């Protein structure tokens, strides 16, 4: 793997990508580790913060412009921020089943599915992996 395309990318793209890599690793560990413990809460806050960085930084990446400076992927960023708020809120309210559902959905849709689109030809992650 050659990370040169990512390291030489402009603006917030490296921050966005490395925050997503970190969130992917932390999130996978979080899903596998025991729930409801102090480490779970601490790692969870780290993951929420990382996901917020991923979502917010995406608004400054405007290489695909379909609606002004934005593309449909920016809608996913809005949904991610709303989902993070809902996940934290449901945990604080003790609605653990809803919290679990929000977090799993965020991990799958906002990281795995959205990340799969970065593998399309012409994208930086495609250049790195292929």
Structural description of this entry:
This protein has 130 residues and is mainly α. The protein has one domain (13-60, 70-129). Helix content is 72%, strand content 0%. It has six helices and no strands. The chain has helices at 4-7, 13-32, 38-58, 72-92, 96-117, 124-129. The longest helix has 22 residues, at 96-117. It is globular.
Class by helix and strand content?
mainly alpha
* Shape estimate: globular
* Euclidean distance between termini CA atoms: 8 Å
**Care to count the β-strands?**
0
Instruction: Write the element-wise H/E pattern from the N-terminal end onward.
Output: HHHHHH
Largest sheet, strands/sense/barrel: none
Q: What percent strand?
A: under 5%
Whole-angstrom Rg: 15 Å
How many domains? The number is: 1
What is this structure, in a nutshell?
This protein has 130 residues and is an all-alpha fold. Helix content is 72%, strand content 0%.
What characteristics describe this protein?
130 residues, mainly alpha, 6 helices
Topology record:
Elements (H helix, E strand, L loop, with lengths): L3 H4 L5 H20 L5 H21 L13 H21 L3 H22 L6 H6 L1
Helix pairs in contact: 2-3, 2-5, 3-4, 4-5
């Amino acid at each position: 793997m050659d990370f040169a395309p990512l390291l030489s990318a402009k603006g917030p793209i490296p921050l966005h990508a490395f925050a997503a890599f970190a969130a992917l690793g932390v999130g996978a560990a979080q899903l596998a580790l025991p729930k409801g413990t102090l480490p779970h809460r601490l790692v969870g806050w780290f993951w929420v913060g990382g996901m917020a960085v991923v979502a917010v930084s995406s608004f400054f990446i405007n290489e695909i412009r379909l609606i002004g400076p934005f593309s449909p992927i920016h809608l996913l960023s809005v949904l991610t921020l709303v989902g993070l708020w809902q996940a934290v809120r449901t945990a604080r309210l003790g609605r653990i089943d809803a919290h679990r559902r929000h977090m799993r959905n965020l991990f799958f849709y906002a990281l795995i599915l959205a990340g799969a689109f970065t593998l399309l030809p012409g994208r930086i992650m495609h250049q790195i992996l292929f």
